[in-house]
């Protein structure tokens, strides 16, 4: 049995109390509001439709909302800007939860000398970029491919970017959190009154809590400290295109040693042709055949847009001579290897901004790739982590490709090369107006998760619909990790008001239902 959210009467009473505390204009509880805070890209958005949303403007108002939620036993689903598309957008796991929309909280404090920022959850990538530009602060952001979300929400969900600071949660330094009992805590060095090093030293004293609030439901983050990259003198690199599906193996084996040694300090992401093509064209422009795409169609699309079967972009940052020396090492590694196209990239201080995520410039564009199949497009992410070996990546690609074909879907994936792992990010694209396809998506997703699990690979992040499924794959010692999470959850949040079901962590009262 699925746990149920609050009844209409319980919700109405809480909504009234929320309006009394933060003003009726900041409480959104009409049917239109429920739709606005749903996930419009998911297979069935009604399964996760919230009951209402509340948008506090201050940490005191967050505390007031938490107090009311405890009194009325109303689940809150905190979001920063709610653009977690592919993984649920603004929507909660538990239908009927109240979305706690923190997007009005937008304070920014930059320490320009030390390259850090302390920001509130509503600060978007564009807000922070404008702040740095307007104040002529020579610090760069790391932004995700589509930068409409918030800096804090993205880091808390372990989102990634393209520069050397691209592992966003790894750059968190100090949080302010409202706990489920309404108390405010500051983590790390911020635990000291008048601390001078809150954003400078990550570990603090004793157990370290920053990461406990990532992908978790233990508290509401109201301030987040983050390290920013000093503006480099140069950005050099190469955009590579490769011709054959099988090239993924040797390319990863060429790049990974440089990644491990620290010559390459960002995580290059090797994506297939559809990752590039789906933002420029739609399927019906090439074929009316609903079956798997033939190599002839793929070749025609690649030819039109001059793209490889795979592509990867690599960048080096720093003083020109250092970046140049690293670039030389990379080019030597690719010497004599079968590259379809190698396009150099160069930016040096004084040039106009490159205007791309590689130089930390936020970009936003309509999610055109969701339109690939036509109809009302949607997508969900499937992102297993595997060891950084070419043969395993090739095997992963071949197995997954076969599953895509079996379930009548089009392969859309990339392999991000982390320091010691690969993240195989798949964006499963579908047409929500195609009932036949929609029937297959759920089975396909289960098949993908089972396939990864069988090899000992787990997802790094997942859609709200699949949080229990993915949690169940972390099964060492009868799910000891989930039990630890549940023990912490029960201690911090006995009423189970913060994000029930997030990452598979349910409050004690709904655990029986969920099982
Ligand atoms: P973005 O602002 O980048 O669009 P979201 O607001 O969608 O990101 O946040 C992604 C997820 O991270 C949310 O679904 C929620 O689980 C978690 N989250 C976001 N902001 C907070 C916060 N301030 N406190 C606690 N959890 C948060």
Keywords summarizing the entry:
14 helices, Uridine Diphospho-n-acetylenolpyruvylglucosamine Reductase, domain 2, 515 residues, 4 domains, five-stranded antiparallel sheet, binds adenosine-5'-diphosphate, alpha+beta, globular, Vanillyl-alcohol Oxidase, Chain A, domain 3, Uridine Diphospho-n-acetylenolpyruvylglucosamine Reductase, domain 3
Task: Describe the protein.
With 515 residues, the protein is of the alpha+beta class. It folds into four domains: 8-101, Uridine Diphospho-n-acetylenolpyruvylglucosamine Reductase, domain 2, CATH 3.30.43; 108-230, Uridine Diphospho-n-acetylenolpyruvylglucosamine Reductase, domain 3, CATH 3.30.465.10; 234-466, 3-Layer(aba) Sandwich (Vanillyl-alcohol Oxidase, Chain A, domain 3), CATH 3.40.462; 467-511, Orthogonal Bundle (Vanillyl-alcohol Oxidase, Chain A, domain 4), CATH 1.10.45.10. It is built from 14 helices and 19 strands. The chain has helices spanning 8-22, 31-36, 59-72, 125-134, 151-156, 247-261, 273-277, 295-305, 320-334, 390-406, 435-454, 467-473, 476-492, 508-514, and strands at residues 27-28, 52-54, 76-79, 98-101, 108-111, 116-119, 139-140, 172-178, 184-186, 220-227, 229-230, 234-242, 269-272, 310-318, 341-348, 377-382, 385-386, 413-417, 422-431. Strands 12, 13, 14, 15, 16, 17, 18 and 19 form an eight-stranded antiparallel beta sheet that branches. The longest helix has 20 residues, at 435-454. The mean pLDDT is 96. The structure holds adenosine-5'-diphosphate. Adenosine-5'-diphosphate is lined by residues 78-84, 102, 121, 149-150, 152-154, 156-157, 220-221, 499, 502.
């Amino acid at each position: 049995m699925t746990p149920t959210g609050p009844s209409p009467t319980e919700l109405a009473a809480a909504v009234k109390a929320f309006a009394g505390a933060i003003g009726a204009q900041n409480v959104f509880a009409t049917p239109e509001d429920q739709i606005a805070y749903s996930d419009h890209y998911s297979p069935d958005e009604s399964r996760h439709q919230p009951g209402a949303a509340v948008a506090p403007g201050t940490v005191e108002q967050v505390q007031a909302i938490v107090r009311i939620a405890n009194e009325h036993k109303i689940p809150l689903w905190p979001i920063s800007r709610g653009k977690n598309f592919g993984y649920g957008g603004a929507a909660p796991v538990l239908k009927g939860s109240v979305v706690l929309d923190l997007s009005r909280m937008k304070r920014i404090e930059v320490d320009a000398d030390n390259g850090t920022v302390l920001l509130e959850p509503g600060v978007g990538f564009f807000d922070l970029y404008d702040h740095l530009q307007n104040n002529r602060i020579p610090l760069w952001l790391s932004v995700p491919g589509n930068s409409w979300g918030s800096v804090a929400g993205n880091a808390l969900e372990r989102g990634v970017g393209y520069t050397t600071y691209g592992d966003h949660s790894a750059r968190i330094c100090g949080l302010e959190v409202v706990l489920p009992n309404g108390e405010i805590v500051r983590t790390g060095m911020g635990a000291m009154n008048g601390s001078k090093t809150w954003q400078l030293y990550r570990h603090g004293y004793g157990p370290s809590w920053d990461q406990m609030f990532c992908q978790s439901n233990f508290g509401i983050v109201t301030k987040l400290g983050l390290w920013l990259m000093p503006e480099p003198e140069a950005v050099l690199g190469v955009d590579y295109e490769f011709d054959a599906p099988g090239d993924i193996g040797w390319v990863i084996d060429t790049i990974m040693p440089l990644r491990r040694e620290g010559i390459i300090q960002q995580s290059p992401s090797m994506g297939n042709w559809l990752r590039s093509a789906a933002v420029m064209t739609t399927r019906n422009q090439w074929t009316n055949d609903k079956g798997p795409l033939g190599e002839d169609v793929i070749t025609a699309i690649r030819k039109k847009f001059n793209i490889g079967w795979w592509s990867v972009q690599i960048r080096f940052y720093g003083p020109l001579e250092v970046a140049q020396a690293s670039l030389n090492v990379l080019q030597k590694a690719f010497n004599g290897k079968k590259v379809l196209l190698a396009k150099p990239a160069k930016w040096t201080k004084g040039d106009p901004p490159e205007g791309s995520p590689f130089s930390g410039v936020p970009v936003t564009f309509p999610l055109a790739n969701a339109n690939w199949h036509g109809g009302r497009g949607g997508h969900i992410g499937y992102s297993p982590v595997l060891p950084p070996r070419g043969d395993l990546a090739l095997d992963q690609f071949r197995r997954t490709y076969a599953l895509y074909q079996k379930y009548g879907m089009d392969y859309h994936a990339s392999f991000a090369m982390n320091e010691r792992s690969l993240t195989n990010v798949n964006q499963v694209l579908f047409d929500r107006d195609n009932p036949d396809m929609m029937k297959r998506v759920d089975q396909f997703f289960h098949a993908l998760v089972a396939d990864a699990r069988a090899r000992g690979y787990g997802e790094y992040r997942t859609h709200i619909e699949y949080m229990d499924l993915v949690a169940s794959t972390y099964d060492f010692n009868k799910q000891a990790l989930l039990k630890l999470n549940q023990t912490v959850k029960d201690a911090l949040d006995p009423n189970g008001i913060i994000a029930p079901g997030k990452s598979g962590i349910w409050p004690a009262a709904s655990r029986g239902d969920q099982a």
